[in-house]
UniProtKB/TrEMBL annotation, chains A, B, C, D, E, F:
Species, as recorded: Dyella flagellata
Matches recorded under InterPro entries: 4CMD/NDH-1_regulator, AhpD-like, CMD-like
Protein name: Carboxymuconolactone decarboxylase-like domain-containing protein
Pfam (any one): CMD
TM annotation in the entry: none
Top-level taxon in the UniProt lineage: Bacteria
PANTHER family from the UniProt entry: 4-CARBOXYMUCONOLACTONE DECARBOXYLASE FAMILY PROTEIN, BLL4600 PROTEIN
Limits of the Carboxymuconolactone decarboxylase-like domain: 17-100
Organism taxonomic ancestry: Bacteria, Pseudomonadati, Pseudomonadota, Gammaproteobacteria, Lysobacterales
């Protein structure tokens, strides 16, 4: 499946080239491009998984990427509100703080 | 399946009436009914949070509820495939097993 | 239920004797016996940690042990209701199901 | 149940008003006020859930709130020591670091 | 047990063919075959990740696979004992229970 | 088992002396010294558990300790690449960032 012809390098290329290649070619090159789910749906699902797992370092990138993929700011806030119930208030609280910063930097 | 627009008793009423009331009135009565996010989007987000957190007991209900809310079976499978990368293969593997059963019971 | 003040063998002795010894002597023999926190407080904290981490297999023992240590059934139910907010509804939902069974078996 | 008459605004009001309202009115306005569990017990349980889930951003507030609710500094340290066993040494290690800072800022 | 050097269909092929292909070709076909880490090391690391995340459904397969890859039974028991400290006693307790069963079925 | 004669003080001695003693005497004094698993194996397992649980504060110490115990830099990178699949891409991504810093500080 994987066509290991080089596309572009990603953020892990300097220190973890194999992981970088898997990220660029398999994750972004193949999975995100599959038509079975829209990019907007993939972003909703990805942001939800990051918030639920408290993956604080990866959230800023995916909050911006979600907006590129058509999720509005109001929808991101509502997603966090919804997840307060399904991942707990602390996860939602941290997500609000990160989102506030991401929105401020990009307005 | 329960019609959650009715503010009737839910599954915790026998033993945890306060939690049941919060579930029926706040979570299903208010949050799920808010217009800022469609029910289909809420289901995508909820199922993603459950898979990412390995909440195996709550997944069957929400896989069925997601289908009521307009998520197709193919989309659910694709969501799990996507989450293999964002929550790890073990979480996806367990989600496949549960989904297989839920689909079989309802076909 | 096991009387943990006795430094006898515990449930891991058959297959994991070193872990068993650490459990019986350090965890139950020393830590649970320290006076800086009452056993009732330790049980509240332990049950909370188990629910928040979805440690479903260890919960039945500690729900019973908590009652031995002075936590009432109503307090356990209220603890779960409180944790719905701090660990998410799915964790609380599973805790209710396990607690219902534990209470039924011991009434 | 929820009386959606405004009480006071909380920390999410600027960007997530619905979550803020749920926090102020349902979580703090209702749940924390219920008599079925004392505020001291609720704080023990909340701090335990935060440590066990590695919710590092929410821990400072709840360490201070726990002291307001009657948990002593020695009891907080003992709670962390106990949770080293039930949530793992890394969670306890991080909790010690945060607690050290919180105590230093408030002495 | 499946011989994963063959790029045949795996356990998800019936319902999630894309995930199955990624599993067989990328995860088992490429990653597990990379020389930068021995299979024994990969098994230690995989079993540790499963125990730490309480991935109870995936543990039996990887306990057996670890033995195929040269991890002894005594080493698996010691790994669990070690992880009691790094992932908490409840995770270790569940791992002991699953390991006991896996060993019994294969002796 | 525990010989509570003082060895050396560790990082928690100032504020959590009992936890410090357990850490120095039981965890490092006994468990890490057991022969049933080499220190290199223990480090692989510990680093895997930390990455899988997103224990970001404890990772720098154990990345250095792993190198002392014979795990090479290339093996640490490969371990992270492997865990991208078993703990999810976000956990691996954060581990790469921390590892990059640790390697830079010690070269």
């Amino acid at each position: 499946m994987t066509d290991f012809t080089q596309k572009t390098q990603g953020p892990f290329a300097d220190i973890a080239p194999a992981l970088d290649q898997l990220t660029q070619q398999v994750l972004f090159g193949e999975v995100w491009e599959r038509r079975e789910l829209t990019k907007r749906d993939r972003s909703l699902v990805t942001v939800a998984a990051l918030i639920a797992q408290y993956r604080i370092n990866e959230l800023p990138f995916h909050l911006k990427f979600a907006q590129q993929n058509g999720v509005t700011r109001d929808e991101l806030i509502e997603l966090i509100t919804h997840l307060a119930f399904y991942a707990g208030w602390p996860a939602a609280s941290t997500a609000v703080g990160i989102t506030r910063k991401v929105f401020a930097e990009n307005s």
